Amino acid sequence: MKSLEELAAIREKMKQKVAIREGADDAVRIVVGMATCGISAGARPVLAAFVEGINDAGLSDKVMVTQTGCIGICQYEPVVEVFENGKDKVTYVKMTPEKAKEVIEKHIKGGKVIEEYTIGAVTK
Amino acid sequence: MIRSHILICGGTGCTSSKSMEIAAALEKEIAAQGLADEVQVVRTGCFGLCALGPIMIVYPEGSFYNMVTLDDVPEIVSEHILKGRPVERLIYKPHSAAEEAEMKEAGIKHATSLSETPFYAKQKRVALKNCGVINPENIDEYIGVGGYQALGKVLTEMTPEEVIDVVSASGLRGRGGAGFPTGRKWSLARNIVKDADQKYVCCNADEGDPGAFMDRSVLEGDPHAVIEAMAIAGYAIGATQGYVYVRAEYPIAVHRLQIAINQAREYNLLGKDIFGTGFDFDIDIRLGAGAFVCGEETALMTSIEGHRGEPRPRPPFPAEKGLFQKPSVLNNVETYANIPQIILNGPEWFASMGTEKSKGTKVFALGGKITNTGLVEVPMGTTLRTIIEEIGGGIPNGKKFKAAQTGGPSGGCIPAEHLDVPIDYDNLIGIGSMMGSGGLIVMDEDNCMVDIAKFFLEFTVDESCGKCTPCRVGTKRLLELLTKITEGKGTMEDLENMEKLCYYIKENALCGLGQTAPNPVLSTLRYFRDEYIAHIKDKTCPAGVCKKLVRYEITDACKGCTKCARNCPVGAISGKIKELHVIDQDKCIKCGVCLDNCAFKAIVKK
């Protein structure tokens, strides 16, 4: 290592990685249903898309991507819930990796819920 | 893409309960489930809650698992990692009513995350900041949490004088025990000898107090912090070479430190022309053979030089003539661990924690009769009561607190009446103990204070290097007097002589070892004199510890079941079946096996 710049570069690269270990108190939580029903409906690539997308967007320190068990609406799996402090929970259903990318762009970054993917739209 | 990190403690405590085997099994199981690209197993340093080891945390949820076994691994992987359902039965639960009430009050139903547990909630982690958070064998992780930024800042933006000013302004005092101001130490080493051709920076990792393991944990969990701080000290005083003196009994610490030094050299964070600033600094490890006296600064330096570890009179102090007769700085591991953060966060930040004359935090190794055995870091000025009752979870089995021993063989016992004294260097000395390196041993009503004093004296007699007479002969005589008392043969005159001898040793011994060796006796005499008197006058040991003063007897409640006689290891119990048994006091070795085995509570200890 020759310079402080190189040190800063390593730090930047590693920061995202170790950020996962800090408690996410006021962070946004994206929870992917990963019970047997979720996994068989394709939750795994959805989870991966969220993890990658959040990381690429440099939001790892603000957004926590985690998983949960069966939410109880197996026919709508893969189900993804987004929790934000002070806001109502948003439940997205029948998710795909493509939809996940869209959710990151519009909802997480843009602050706009994609109504058509939510459980409200499907059960109407 | 990694979505989850499983942190597993690789400190000495958890390693001894198979945490490394568990880590390997986890990796195998994760690979078998096809999750190797998604989940990373990280071996970290000590989390601090050693009593509940092996400890494991799964992120991003922060689920805090304790007492994990190899058999739990498949369940954790298939349930939590694959399906996202934390394994409830392994998650930390409050283990006292007080703790439960406290959690309820804080609105926590169920501590799934580490910071929610009462054990961690009251702590303030500075020296232990990265322990249990990063992989100590990976320099990139250290850099990721801000590592080596302080060294970069110091070398490119600050003069050595400015560095010393910042350390002085922070109020940091030596964490090894005596509490000498670190900034002043550095300033002396920089200025006292002009034109020295060579200076040295040494790190005292010869942690020798029985029950103390904070320095070991820092080296195991965050070795780069110590390396970075030593380089900063080198720049401040004008040294190009550092030595870490660490005991060979700490194999994991030595191993990780060596890895860390090698990695720092690879990145040129140690070596020539660091950050292109022309500053050279390197570090080597010197292994100690575990002699307690080598924790004393002059003995430590003599040992690094390759001689027998014996202290020498001061002055000259090491700042003038230290290692190889050159000006040297010697600081303790924990002291160094504070330095990078003082540089990065500023001296005001550090000085905002603690009391008027003791700034920052202090790490304590909790041991003895306490629920949460382990490592805790609290701001200076925290009361002993908070540490023992709240963080430590109180005394197990509903026993009553009797005393806390701080400062190891150099310190003293603090009785219940001083539980609310804010802990700092000066207050502890005021109540007859000392900070020491931070060992904190809790004693309950079953501990005999004369026996405790004897235990520490046995230690110092063993560890006295023998160079000066007050320590070599004096501690031996002290131990003989104590032994006499514990055997019920002591007189009140012995007590007086013992006290006189204590002060004589304190005034005349050559080094810190001897000067402080009588402290355990003096402090127990000060607070528990009645126990000494009970041993001398009544020939009894109130706590029932001193074997020569204890008798086991069988009462009329005996049913003659013969169980005690069958279990007695020395055949001291006789009697026919269905008849009252008797113990032959001459044969009895007071092991207590009969008492533990009697189903009818017919055996009493007197």
Note down, in words, how this protein is organized.
The complex is a heterodimer of chains A (124) and B (606). With 124 residues, chain A is α+β, with helices and mostly antiparallel strands. Chain A has a single domain, classed as Glutaredoxin, CATH 3.40.30.10. The mean pLDDT of chain A is 85. Chain A has a 4-stranded mixed beta sheet, covered by helices on one side. In chain A, 43% of the residues lie in helices and 15% in strands. Chain A contains 5 helices and 4 strands, in the order H-E-H-H-E-E-E-H-H. A 5-stranded mixed beta sheet of chain B has the order 7-8-6-5-9, with helices on both faces. In chain B, strands 11-10-14-12-13 form a 5-stranded mixed beta sheet, sandwiched between helices. A 4-stranded mixed beta sheet of chain B has the order 2-1-3-4, covered by helices on one side. Chain B is globular. The N and C termini of chain B lie far apart (67 Å). At the A-B interface, helix 1, helix 3 and strand 2 of A face strand 1, helix 6 and helix 7 of B.
Biggest beta sheet summary of chain B? 5 strands, mixed
Q: Approximately how much beta-strand content do the residues of chain B carry?
A: 15-25%
CATH topology (level 3) name of the largest domain in chain B: Rossmann fold
User: Strand sequence of the main sheet of chain B, in spatial order?
Assistant: 7-8-6-5-9
List descriptors.
heterodimer, A: alpha+beta, Glutaredoxin, four-stranded mixed β-sheet, 5 helices, 4 strands, 15% strand, elongated, B: alpha/beta, Rossmann fold, Ubiquitin-like (UB roll), 5 domains, five-stranded mixed β-sheet, 18 strands
